Amino acid sequence: MKSRFAPSPTGYLHIGGARTALFAWLWARKEQGKFILRIEDTDRERSNQASVDAILDGMKWLGLDYDEGPYYQTDRFDRYKIVVQQLLEEDKAYYCECSQERLQTLRDKLMAKGEKAKYDGHCQHKNLTAGVVRFRNPAEGNVVFSDLVKGEISVHNKELDDLIIARSDGTPTYNLTVVVDDHDMEIDCVIRGDDHINNTPRQINLYEALGWDLPAFAHLPMILGGDGARLSKRHGAVSVMAYRDAGFLPEALLNYLVRLGWSHGDQEVFSIDEMIRLFDLKDVNKAPGSFNQDKLLWLNQEYIKTADMTHLIEQLDWHLNSQAIDVSGGPDITKVVDVLRERSKTLVEMAQSMKMFYQDFDRFDEKAASNQFKPSAEPIIKALIDHYSQLEDWSSTEIHDIVKTVCDEQGVGFGKVGQPFRLALSGTGNAGSIDVVAELVGKERTLARLKLALDYIAQIDN
RNA sequence: GUCGCCUUCGUCUAUCGGUUAGGACCCCAGGUUUUCAUCCUGGUAAGAGGAGUUCGAUUCUCCUAGGCGAUGCCA
């Protein structure tokens, strides 16, 4: 069994494309068949190599590997020419030289009359030898097919016109190439967005004219933005790689995408293996769904919390580089990640939080500092410095005991000591349990930061 | 305009004629926590509208409305 993903390289791999690719990939993996990547670049005006690379990068990051391809339609022009020629010879297609202007006025006229805008067959019997090539669509009857997602779909041939299968420059168009390729590549199930539903009856007529067996069709509902409109840039990031940049784990995005339009009871979290095992086109929803960033964020945190440490660090590496954080010479990264994984929604956040362990800072968050570093905190911080500078065994338990000792000595509660200490350590006030954090930050840096806090208090005193 | 597809909490969804319409995200309240977060408990919130079929419709049929898509020498 074979399925395919066939994007046209006119931009990056976007969320909708990724979801389509995922479903087609899942189907192939579930059927233990093959998954093919085909680049539909027949529109040379809009296609470019940068887009091909972006799509390949996106697929790679998501882990959607393919067994064949990428095939490029521009490499197969000879094959399409043969098919067009065959159709021409069998009188199943004909040349048409209607001008764009004529076509446009024809459309306007029909629309004004309240009819469907379609080609009127002007050149059908002219026996021309140049121009665009049009397929002779059957005039009567209707095309009925059973979509694996949508169920039975029926369209009258009257609604269909003689579509152009080759441009006047001889290059083939989408509806022809897709049929030829899906046939030649032995695709058993065409899984694509439901914006192609309207093309399917035309393609079916082409299959029949060519005497080819029909594949199964599964049309996936679109993904809309939160406002119900088609997903676009104004809804935020639509490029898959932008999600990598924003600190999402590929498996979290995949999990989010698979649940958008598909479900398995009440289950929300699926490993890749579970998706493959449980996925079924019959459980795919018919209605379009809208993209919800909050849920993605939640899933991302779920994955950050439970991800395999090695994998997590691999994914984190890109962000460490982009934020210029050098972890060599600092505390063990696995210990730092362990502290941070429960409080990071994204890898970007995690990398930011990591700075306090690997980089020095010379100022505190102003708002937090004005709250915490009051003159009353001065003796507490001094006491911490005194005790810690004498501490030999720099461990979280010892560090914790000293905080308690200081509480007792100063006659204050844990909060009075812990809060300024935490701010001194982190600079922002956001940190995990202070003893563990202090241990990881190290004795030298901890003392330096406490002294910095003292400087801050001295400065506001004056 | 015409044709096609779609319609359960704000969002993602469960339900395969009989349920107090369930779960998840978000939000709110409470608890745990030295902060934040995690975690735990609870709460708010839905069948587009109208006809039928049926003992009984969210579920089946039809109509209307709304949304999306197509109507390209784009894919």
Would you write up a description of this structure?
The structure is a single chain. This protein has 462 residues and is mostly helical. It folds into five domains: 2-72 and 176-224, HUPs (Rossmann fold, 3-Layer(aba) Sandwich), CATH 3.40.50; 80-166, Alpha-Beta Complex (Glutamyl-tRNA Synthetase, domain 3); 233-306, Glutamyl-tRNA Synthetase, domain 2 (Orthogonal Bundle), CATH 1.10.1160; 309-356; 360-462, Arc Repressor Mutant, subunit A, CATH 1.10.10.350. The protein contains 19 helices and twelve strands. The strands form five sheets. It has a three-stranded parallel sheet, with helices on one face. Strands 4-5-8 form a three-stranded antiparallel sheet. The protein has a two-stranded antiparallel ribbon with strand order 6-7. α1 (15-30) crosses α9 (272-278), α8 (250-259) crosses α10 (293-306) and α15 (378-390) packs antiparallel against α19 (443-461). The model has no long low-confidence stretch (mean pLDDT 91). It binds one RNA strand of 75 nucleotides through α4, β7, α5, β12 and α10.
